[in-house]
């Protein structure tokens, strides 16, 4: 079993707590964090990032902070053009996306801090951001109840953007103009499902392949947090009434007399509202945060609480479960902070994120490479876009320095390129298989038609 780590934060200045999910051992506690909801992200396990909003009434008080795994203090501070609420990183840690209170979405390159793209996504503040599992789509939710699906192929293809009627792939408006509180995506790339929650007391299940609403589930309480079971048979919904509901995704529309259609039962009942949920990789453990400052670990098979962590006296608004990486020191705990160890070291953190984008001339230099550009975007599985200037800068650095750090950067880049190549090969295999099946079906249909015509004659 791979070691997994629970990370939690709150809107009060209570820092960031970190525990081993399976042993309960506390790791380093990070200082000076007042996170926004959905504003805590692990950047490929290399470091932590969190959006901050000190004064909600101020339009210029937002910031984004970075922490490395070997120091409790903030190491990098960024000050975007406006307060950022949700913050998300892609799985490889190359990009960070943030949602602004104006409704704009910002897209930064981690290695350089460059603001690559910014676009107006919603009429009101962005509340949720999530990548789909193959990183080709970015899904956003907002205070106006809308959910929009953005193809990164289109966002980074300037020529196609000029011809497009709108930037989004889908615009879901069925949440009755009530604030979207959480969004989760399943597996399957562009054929996956989306589950969304809103202050209208419903969770809705959407199809990414068809853009259609598949199911609406009405709950007894407002749902602020959801977590998908890895098998996608059920999902868990944390309510403001303190209950964690179990809702069926593939089950028939049975009705539970206590809760309603599609709601199988509850996993836990508490006195305080559930604010955030996260699952272990195997789905056997569900981690919940609530307004009482407690983080509870529940076994989804027995429905029992197996462990309780205390983060703060105030509310918890973010819990994240990640695999323990090489950048974390498992020996680093809350009890060992007073005695620094020479083993505690890590890679230097990237520079702060840009406040504004580059000039028009510099923007023209940022290229977007789209694999198989003539193929419809809903078929493609993996985006491949890079900054040409960044690549050239990295090459110069490797040539000039020749250091171990530069070599590690080169290794990581080669691994990323190899992964993209494997994904591309698999993608073309799938496309070839689909085309072959289509041709065979057409030939068989024609043959059957000819035989039927001959028999009629």
UniProtKB/TrEMBL annotation:
One of its GO terms (cellular component) is nuclear pre-replicative complex. This is Uncharacterized protein. WD repeats lie at residues 119-152, 194-216, 267-308. It holds the Pfam family WD40. It comes from the Eukaryota. One of its GO terms (biological process) is rRNA processing. Keywords: Repeat, WD repeat. Coiled coil: none annotated. InterPro entries: WD40/YVTN_repeat-like_dom_sf, WD40_PAC1, WD40_repeat_dom_sf, WD40_rpt, WDR18/Ipi3/RID3.
């Amino acid at each position: 079993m791979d070691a997994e780590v629970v990370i939690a934060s709150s809107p009060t200045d209570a820092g960031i707590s970190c525990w081993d999910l399976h042993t309960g051992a506390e790791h380093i506690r990070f200082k000076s964090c007042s996170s926004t909801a959905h504003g805590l992200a692990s950047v490929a396990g290399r470091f932590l990032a969190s959006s901050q909003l000190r004064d909600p009434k101020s339009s210029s008080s937002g910031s984004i902070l970075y922490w490395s795994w070997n120091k409790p203090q903030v190491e990098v501070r960024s000050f975007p053009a406006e307060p950022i609420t949700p913050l998300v990183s892609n799985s490889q840690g190359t990009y960070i996306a943030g949602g602004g209170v104006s409704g704009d979405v910002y897209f930064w390159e981690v290695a350089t801090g460059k603001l690559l793209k910014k676009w107006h996504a919603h009429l009101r503040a962005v509340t949720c951001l999530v990548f789909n599992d193959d990183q080709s789509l970015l899904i956003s939710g907002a205070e106006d109840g809308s959910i929009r699906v953005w193809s990164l192929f289109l966002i980074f293809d300037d020529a196609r953007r000029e011809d497009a009627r709108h930037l989004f792939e889908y615009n879901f408006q069925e949440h009755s103009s009530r604030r979207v509180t959480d969004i989760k995506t399943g597996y399957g790339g562009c054929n996956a499902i989306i589950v969304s929650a809103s202050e209208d007391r419903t969770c809705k299940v959407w199809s990414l392949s068809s853009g259609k609403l598949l199911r609406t589930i009405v709950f007894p309480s407002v749902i602020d947090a959801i977590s998908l079971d890895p098998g996608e048979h059920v999902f868990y919904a944390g309510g403001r009434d303190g209950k964690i509901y179990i809702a069926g995704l593939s089950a028939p529309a049975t009705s539970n007399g206590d809760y309603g259609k599609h709601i199988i039962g509850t996993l836990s009942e508490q006195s305080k509202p559930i604010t955030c949920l996260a699952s272990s990789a195997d789905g056997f453990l569900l981690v919940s945060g609530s307004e009482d400052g407690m983080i509870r670990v529940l076994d989804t098979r027995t429905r029992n609480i197996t462990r309780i962590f205390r983060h703060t006296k105030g509310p918890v608004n973010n819990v994240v479960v990640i695999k323990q990486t090489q950048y974390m020191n498992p020996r680093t705990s809350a009890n060992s902070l007073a005695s620094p160890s020479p083993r505690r070291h890590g890679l230097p953190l990237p520079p702060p994120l840009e406040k504004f984008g580059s000039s028009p001339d510099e923007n023209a230099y940022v290229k977007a490479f789209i694999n198989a550009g003539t193929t419809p975007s809903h078929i493609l599985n993996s985006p491949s876009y890079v900054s040409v200037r960044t690549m050239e800068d990295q090459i110069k650095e490797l040539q000039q320095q020749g250091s171990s750090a530069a070599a590690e950067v080169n290794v990581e880049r080669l691994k990323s390129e190899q992964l993209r190549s494997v994904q591309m090969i698999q993608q073309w295999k799938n496309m070839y298989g689909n085309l072959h099946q289509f041709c065979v079906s057409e030939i068989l249909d024609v043959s059957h038609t000819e035989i039927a015509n001959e028999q009629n004659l």
